[in-house]
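Data availability (excerpt). The following record was deposited with the supplementary files.
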Amino acid sequence: MRRVLLMVALLMAAPLVAGCASPAWDDADYGSKAGATAEAAASSVALVRLAVENEARLTRPYLQTLLTETATELGGVDSQFGAVQPPSQAAVAVRAEITGLTSEAAERVRALLNEVRLREIRDPGKAAADLAALGDRLRAFAGEQPS
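Predicted structure:
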């Protein structure tokens, strides 16, 4: 009886596990998903850049909330794309590049959040310039992908 219940439980769980990763039918489809991921991350990075540039005009609790939510969003974008199965070796390289960029974005936002929690952003000008460069790299990556 236990074996039957275990089999039923496994069979019921299989569609849930399979639903965690969306398929990419070919390299073009995968590239399109990667491009959309890069665009979403670039938008988040741009929002943080604007907040950093205007840090003096924002309250610390607001800036902390914005950075916390953006770091969470970037992590979600990264893990959501990570669940898409690459259809080829070429797509594996695309995956490595986009997950590297989105991970870098999330790490930078978390580092800024830590600075804000400790006191303030040490060098807002440099942070904004670094974020602008990262946003440019994300948008360039997105532009290289099929739409």
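Summary of structural features: The chain is about 80% helix and 0% strand.
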